[in-house]
Amino acid sequence: MKKTKNNFIEISIKVAEGNVLKNLGGPFGAVVVKNGKVIAAAGNSVTKKNDPTAHAEIEAIRKAAKKLKTFDLSSCEIYSSCKPCPMCLSAIYWANIKKIYYAANSKAAARAGFRDDFIYKEFAKPAEKRKIKEAQQNAPSKNNPFKLWKKSQQKVKY
Ligand SMILES: [Zn+2]
After folding, report:
1. Catalytic: which of 57, 77, 122, 134?
2. d(CA 143, CA 140)
3. pLDDT digits over 20-76, tens only?
4. To pair with 11 at 20 to 30 A between CA atoms, which of 3, 116, 136, 141?
5. What is the Cα–Cα distance from 134 to 44, expressed in whole angstroms?
6. Where is this region: Disordered (predicted)?
7. What's the rounded Cα separation, in Å, for the pair 133 and 30?
């Protein structure tokens, strides 16, 4: 029987539950789907891997890209047990994933102690009002990598 959107969301939630029950990381799961088939499923493994970027969506994207042998997942959709955080949302854009489905929202994640909602609010502020300050260092060579890239005959565009 063909799987539905609800089936894929249920899989992402089951992965998230398993992650908590097996103490593998945060309560999040994600599934990358192509043509109605699961390509990759992954849970959050931040604490297990000591990797602050090892969110479920990022882990699922890495697995899917490896499996499909491409950095372009434009033929895929992602299902997540919770609304992707800003980092994962960016990763989804970089992967060209065409659609996002999620179950819980950022407010629910905040109630469980996660900062997704806080980071969304931070990004909506002008840079000078954010908690983490940023400053451009005006190095004379700052645009050299781009000049080299534009001239490169061997680059793989993405
Ligand atoms: Zn995330």
Report:
1. 57
2. 8
3. 999 999 999 999 999 999 999 999 999 999 999 999 999 999 999 999 999 999 999
4. 116
5. 28
6. 131-158
7. 31
Is 57 tagged catalytic? Answer: yes
Q: Where are the alpha helices (H) located in the chain, listed in sequence order?
A: 5-21, 46-49, 56-68, 86-94, 106-111, 116-124, 144-151
Q: How far is the CA of 32 from the centre of ligand 1 (A)?
A: 14
Question: What is the identity of the amino acid at 4?
Answer: T
* Residue 78 near residue 100 (C-beta atoms within 8 A): yes
Radius of gyration, CA atoms only, the chain: 18
Question: What residue ranges define each of the domains in the chain, with the CATH number in brackets?
Answer: 8-104 (3.40.140.10)
- Residues 1, 16: Cα–Cα separation, whole Å: 24
pLDDT digits (tens, 9 = 90+) for 87-126: 999 999 999 999 999 999 999 999 999 999 999 999 999 9
Integer CA distances (angstroms), 25 to 18, 34, 36, 70, 106, in order: 10, 26, 27, 27, 18
- Global pTM reads 0.95
Residue type, 61: I
Q: How far is the CA of 92 from the centre of ligand 1 (A)?
A: 10
